[in-house]
Amino acid sequence: MSLVEDVNGALYEVIDPELGINIVDLGLVYNIDVNEVNDVHITMTLTTPGCPLHDSIVGGVEHMVGRVEGVGKIDVELVWQPAWTPEKMSREAKELLMF
After folding, report:
1. What is the pLDDT of residue 51?
2. 90, 27 in Cβ contact below 8 A?
3. Is the whole-model pTM more than 0.90?
4. In a domain, 29, yes or no
5. Phi-psi category of residue 51: left, alpha or beta, with phi > 0 → left and psi -120 to 50 → alpha
6. Phi, then psi, of 63 in degrees rounded to 5
7. 42-97, pLDDT tens digit by residue?
8. What whole-number distance in Å separates Cα of residue 20 and Cα of residue 14?
9. Main-chain phi, psi angles of 78, to 5 degrees
């Protein structure tokens, strides 16, 4: 597996505390980049810009990605464009939330 795949797998372990679903299935992770020295840049969003669990979720991302063997520095970039919508969720997440 590639480091990008390992990082993506680790992100499945980051659960949105309000919804109880991982951030990948929620569609919050937009991109994962790994450079030549294995520094990881994750572009993601939250369900709302004013999300009260911002620090908890970003901290969870940093913690879980930091556990992946070979990862260098970790940079989490929160973006608001494109805005998150329920359509970004996986089929499994939509079923769990009855969408």
Report:
1. 84
2. yes
3. yes
4. yes
5. beta
6. -65, -50
7. 999 999 988 888 999 999 999 999 999 999 999 999 999 999 999 999 999 999 99
8. 10
9. -90, 130
* Contact indicator for 42, 75 with CB cutoff of 8 Å: yes
| DSSP-derived secondary structure for the chain | --HHHHHHHHHTT-EETTTTEETTTTT-EEEEEE-TT--EEEEE--SSTT-TTHHHHHHHHHHHHHTSTT---EEEEE--SSPP-GGGS-HHHHHHTT-
CATH number of the domain that residue 32 is part of: 3.30.300.130
Q: Is residue 98 part of a domain?
A: no
Q: How confident is the model at residue 99 (pLDDT cuts 50, 70, 90)?
A: confident
Confidence class for position 34, pLDDT limits 50, 70, 90: very high
Task: Give the span between the Cα atoms of 49 and 54, in whole angstroms.
Answer: 9
